[in-house]
Design a protein that fits this description.
Elements lengths: L1 E3 L9 E9 L14 E4 L5 E5 L3 E10 L16 E5 L12 H20 L3 E11 H5 L18 E2 L5 H8 L23 H8 L5 E9 L10 E4 L9 E7 L4 E7 L7 E3 L7 E9 L3 H5 L20 E3 L1 E2 L10 E10 L3
Parallel strand pairs: 1-5, 3-11, 5-13
Antiparallel strand pairs: 2-5, 2-16, 3-4, 6-14, 7-17, 8-12, 9-14, 9-17, 10-13, 10-15, 11-12
């Protein structure tokens, strides 16, 4: 199914792209219903999907690099922001699980903490993506298989799974958790009291991904599109379940809507860090519990709840473009001690 749409922001340049949304015929949902899901095997690799009905939408993806000053998109208000942050260890082997967890996680946490002003930030999970790596079944040393770029409009957490992921981090990691190889037996990333305070009425937590190109060449194929969190409504959402060996996670997929405003940063390099908000307990959706279906996810003000994102097919990409290799590191963000 192919649809068409175009949302060009004022004074912005853009490219024509194809994005994969959930089909408009799929029933909207804010909570888990067992209708749309994927399965993962014991080591966390893909093992099939159910209930997927997708619609390709062709639209304009605006160039965020042409914005300046107050027009710039920010992690707080819009759900994403790009920073110049050269690697502290340029020779890091991103295909080695132990190296990433022990040498790169703290670097990511520091970048996120500086950008948000949070009291405490800890990295807890990551994915490596490469189309060539996926096709060749390349396996990360000490980790799972390489994943392909995700061509589905989605947000990584929901009303249920956002707070649940925070609670999970107060328990020792399970077999599928990235940290199980580096934490001592019985050790958890967070203490329960800290989690309880973050979930309280005066607490605030967020989950933010740090996305980086890890290939020598700038990103050309499968660039990343980001939806302004202020332009998404609750009725656009569909719960997408992730059935792991020992737990069920949830994402939000999106159905197409004319008001969605999409942005990208052309030709991202290894020296840049893109922050993507996956969940914010201070956002409108989290604060209302989904009760205000007539409001945007951003609520028209900062902070927004999250930003939808996806790899997309850029019609301007040359046929001989090099493979995109990228890493995304998930960070838990606590705004007060």
């Amino acid at each position: 199914m192919v649809m068409s749409a175009s949302t060009m922001a004022p004074d912005a340049r853009g490219t024509l792209g194809a994005l994969n949304y959930m089909a408009p015929t799929v029933k909207s949902s804010l909570l888990r219903n067992g209708k749309v899901l994927t399965r993962r095997d014991r080591d966390g690799s893909d093992a099939g999907t159910e209930g997927m009905a997708m619609a390709e939408v062709e639209l304009v993806v605006n160039d965020a690099r042409c914005l300046s000053g107050s027009q710039r998109r920010t992690i707080e208000t819009h759900g994403f922001e790009l920073f110049s942050r050269p690697l502290a260890r340029p020779d890091l082997d991103f295909y080695d699980h132990q190296q990433v967890v022990r040498k790169y996680y703290d670097e990511c946490a520091g970048i996120v903490q500086k950008a948000t002003g949070a009291a405490r930030v800890l990295a807890f999970d990551h994915n490596i993506r490469s189309e060539v790596g996926k096709k060749s079944k390349r396996r990360i040393t000490g980790g799972q298989e390489v994943q392909e770029p995700a061509h589905d409009v989605h947000g990584d957490y929901t009303l249920t799974s956002g707070p649940q992921r925070l609670c999970d981090l107060a328990r020792p990691p399970s077999i599928n958790d990235t940290l199980c190889l580096v934490l001592d037996e019985g050790q958890a990333l967070l203490d329960p009291d800290r989690v309880e305070r973050a979930l309280g009425e005066t607490g605030r937590f967020a989950i933010i991904n740090l996305w980086r190109n890890i290939a020598p060449a700038p990103v050309a194929i499968h660039p990343l599109a980001l939806c302004d969190g202020q332009t998404v409504n609750p009725e656009d959402l569909v719960v997408f379940e992730i059935h792991y060996h020992d737990r069920i996670g949830e994402n939000y997929f999106a159905k197409p809507a004319k008001q969605h405003e999409w942005w990208y940063y052309p030709a991202m390099t290894r020296d840049e860090a893109l922050l993507i908000k996956q969940w914010d307990s201070a956002g409108e959706l989290a604060r209302s519990g989904g009760a205000r279906a007539d409001s945007s996810i951003g609520g028209g003000h900062a902070p927004c709840s999250f930003s939808f994102h996806t790899a997309f097919t850029d019609r301007a990409t040359p046929p001989d473009a090099p493979d995109r290799e990228s890493i995304e590191v998930r960070c838990i963000v606590l705004y007060s001690e």
